[in-house]
Amino acid sequence: MSSDVSAPGGAVVARGQARTDVLTRPLRRWRSLLRLLWRAGPAHVVALGVLVVVLGLLPTAIILATGELVGALPAAVEHGLGSADGTTALLALAAVIVGWTLRAFGHNAAGYLRQVLDSAFTSTFHETIARSVLGTRGVAPLERPEVTGELAALEDAERRGQLRSTVSTMSNIAMSRLTGLSALIVLLGLRWWAPLLLASVWQLVNLSYRRASAKGVTVGISEGASEVRRSEYLRGLAVGPGAAKEVRVFGLAGWVVGQYADAWSSVLGAIWRSRRANRLLTAVVVAAILLAHGLVLLTLSRDVNRGAIGVGEVAVFVQAAVVSFSFGWLGDMQWWLTRSLDAVERVERLGSLLATTDPVRPTPPDRRRTDGAVDVRLRDVSFTYHGRSRPTLDRLNVHVAAGQSTAIVGANGAGKSTMVKLLCGLYEPDSGRVLLDGLDAEVAARGRVAVIFQDFVRYELSLRANVGFGSLTTADDDVPVDDTAVDPVAAALRDAGGAELLARLPNGWDTVLARGYDGGVDLSGGEWQRVALARALAAVRGGAGLLILDEPTANLDVRAETELFEQFLDLTRGTTTILVSHRLSSVRRADRILVVHDRRIVEDGSHQELIAQEGRYARMFALQAQRFAVEEPAAVPSGPEVVRDA
Q1: Which residue range forms the structural domain that includes residue 439?
Q2: In total, how many domains does the chain have?
Q3: pLDDT in tens, 380-417
Q4: DSSP sequence for 300-334
Q5: Which Gene3D superfamilies does its entry note (predicted)?
Q6: Rounded distance, CA 35 to CA 29, Å?
Q7: Considering the entire predicted model, what is its pTM?
Q8: H-type alpha helices, 382-485
């Protein structure tokens, strides 16, 4: 029988689960944080832990030694330093000096360990995220709303820099708590209720600050969330390079600054309204602090008047009462630690969301091919994107023989790019199989498939990295970087027509392809096309047997795209190639053309065969030929015709 939370019993169960989560969630978060911290450096964690305990207890030890010194001084002055009282005073003084010395050296050592562990922890945090994201079977899991939400939150946490001091914050809080706790224990010598009263007051302070902080966070993610995003967007318009040209051309600077100021003022208004709502609680907390400390000090003064305690004990109890504040709210440190715990919890949740219960099937070593053209088969393949009801591909059957050049054409949204993603192993079909050399694509694609997408990546790295990423094994070869006879990366750039590009770069292969770096250079669209093509050719030299161009030349004119495709086919002859384009004139030279329509292959043949069939391809080709004939006249009229046209 299913549970119903709307029923009385269901409501009780839900409340019980909520209470259990309130108790167990902090433990889970701390366990996750400590697990990451231990991975960052076990030896350093142990050393810092020992120092935290020592440095946390030292202040109270110094207080006790100071009380002993103050209590022994009158008698030492009266009887001399050579007396027993003098010896007690000297030992107490030595203890105070040793305590402060140890504290100074300990803080220096702890500071060094904090820096080391903060860096290691941040690196481990990023590495954990990267392993979770890069370990998925394709890209479909990364497109789930819950995953994108966690990634956005983690990106915000990293951008705000709240993780870079996690270890420092945590160790400082631990030291303060130990100091406050030991001071409260010392106060047991005054009255049993004194430390309990002060501890209760400081916990009330903690509660009030947590409520205020939670209210501020709620305001930030609800009432003020849209204004925060709007203000950050407007700030990006003002200072970012993306909109710099239009902001200046259209004279938008004053408007952007004014809108940014209004949005940020709205955010601050929401925050201040939240803070004003906590004024009464703040007043109660302040009154409680004053009352509790007043009672403790009043009790202390009465004992002094009765002669029940000496001057040394007075010094100890007064200092202990003051130091007990370390058991209360510690300001921004607790806020940042809370944010770090939240971020670590999100990392754990992200890992759980991306963990696959369907492990990758192992590749039989005797069947895997590592070189040569790839044989491609799609058998009854159906695929539907997450959140859609209508399939993009439906029972698709295709066979591309090894070494064949094939073009895939069709209207926008017909499923061309979806086929490419399936061939690359980025998605798994809902049904059917995608096979490369007889193996499932998600297993066989790595190292055997190279692709240039329409939105190919323009890495803000060196030219050599941009080309060599096609095959890391060849990019790392220790060879002369300008000798195309032996350097596969240089040969790939040469074959792609990028020799002139290399010659004009200021630092040659080491030139960073971005203007934001010293000596960096940005490239034109055509030059980036050459670099992307070179990357694909480097992949061929590294063992890729299937090359795919998924409309990477969509921003080029028809003539430039045709020239690039023809060059690509010439350079990759003997390799299985797939060209995706919506311009039919660019793929005429392909051995075979597949026309995708209504989720299936509706026509299959060479250019001449499809034209002769007078079907969909022939009609599409005729329409595009007419349009391009109007847009690109063959000759410019001269003489009287020019005058007449003018």
Answers
A1: 372-448+545-646
A2: 3
A3: 999 988 878 888 898 889 999 998 989 998 888 788 88
A4: HHHHHHTT-S-HHHHHHHHHHHHHGGGGS--THHH
A5: ABC transporter type 1, transmembrane domain (1.20.1560.10), P-loop containing nucleotide triphosphate hydrolases (3.40.50.300)
A6: 10
A7: 0.70
A8: 416-423, 441-444, 463-468, 472-475
